[in-house]
Amino acid sequence: MAESYRVSCLSTAERLGNDELHALMAGVVRRDRRESQQLFAAVTPLLIAFYEGQVQAGRIKRGATAGLVQEAFKALYLGQPGYDPNLPFRAWVLDIARSTLLSNSGSEAVFDALAGVAVRNCQQAMQVT
């Protein structure tokens, strides 16, 4: 049963390889609009999947994913000078996604699963004393 579930969840879309992603990033560095759009289209599913995993883990709110994807792209474009074509491209993008998540951890994007519990416990503690 798990095998059929796993197969149905796999994307059948063609993923670009490391070389193609590096070539698109080189186009971004050259400020090529078409290649920038292609890179955006290629990397968006990876970023969405990363942030959806954070939603499922309870680290962020579901509504925060779009904003975090935008922030990650902004960091990707601003991080061009630190881009190293000798490293795996997806690992670099996921590092940016993690950094973006951590830099936004103090904002409303973070889901505080214990907020309601803390308030209830505080009220109960005040009633006891």
From TrEMBL:
InterPro entries: RNA_pol_sigma_r2. One of its GO terms (biological process) is DNA-templated transcription initiation. This is RNA polymerase sigma-70 region 2 domain-containing protein. It comes from the Bacteria. The lineage of its organism: Bacteria, Pseudomonadati, Pseudomonadota, Gammaproteobacteria, Pseudomonadales. GO terms for molecular function: DNA-binding transcription factor activity.
